[in-house]
Amino acid sequence: MTFPGFFKNTFKMEPARPEQTQDTHKHDYIALCVNNLKKYKRMKTQIILWSCIFLAGITSVSAQFSETIVSDRPGQSNSPYTVGKMVLQFQTGPQFDGADADNYKNNSFSWPAFVRFGITDKIEVQTLWSYQSENTEEYIFDSKRNGLNAADFGLRFNIFEETDKAPALGFEVLYKTKLKSDDYQPDHSSAKINFMSSKTLSDLLSLTANLGVDYDGDGGAPTGLYTLNLVLVVKEELSVFFENYGNFGRDDFNTYFDFGGAYLLNPNLQLDLYGGFGYNNDTFTYLVSSGISYRIIKWKKD
Length: 302
Description:
It is a single chain. By secondary structure, the chain is α+β, with helices and mostly antiparallel strands. The protein has 2 domains: 3-56; 60-296, Beta Barrel (Lipocalin), CATH 2.40.128.130. 16% of the residues lie in helices and 52% in strands. It contains 2 helices and 13 strands, in the order ααβββββββββββββ. It has helices at residues 3-11, 22-59; strands at 88-92, 95-101, 104-118, 123-138, 141-160, 168-176, 190-200, 205-214, 223-235, 238-248, 253-266, 269-280, 283-296. β10 and β11 form a beta hairpin. The chain is globular, with a radius of gyration of 23 Å. The chain starts with a helix and ends in a 6-residue tail after the last strand.
């Protein structure tokens, strides 16, 4: 169906009959608005995805290929750059999290695996899978749950590369499916949308920032997300970072900090180690993670 035909069929109103009263007109109009709103909600995910594809189409010009691997690890910030055309990249590693408050304690172990593949130099497809096991103590009650807690598929676009005066800009959308274990099963599939930017500040310093929104799939209000990541290159193979990140809603704001480093074993292989902490709503949280990022470039053509 063409767009004009779509809107004609979706939002058309029937002409009022002479015998209808003003109250009947109002009732019919409200019913029509409610019906259109329901249709809009069903279309929302499709509109986002098709908008992303359109955006990718108008920006899919060639981009410079990085001579060394560019990973989203370590830390929470994602790069505005893709892995490059016909490049396959893996990012994975265990993570330990904890939360401690009065009459509450939670400890968890997770192992996310992020796989990225470049369709063009500007566009990549990606998938995130994660296993988690956690134990919660609240007052005198204990509970445990474990299983697959993430099964996501997404796209990333590099909109602009960095210039002398402007930062690089990227866009990412993840479709969070219901292909999860019962302990982590949401009511509905949902989405996470993220804008990423980065800028080289000097020969040794660079800054990456993310701003996004996350839908939980359980009918709750969407959560805003942000990150600020400062990287210092100690030497060619070694870099360290300090990061502030958090989430926010209409009446809530939580902020966290993490720091660590990454070491290049070769241009296609990176190891990392980092940790973090936060104190929000009288709850102290912490995390420790180590991981590996590896890319395969044998299919890439010069």
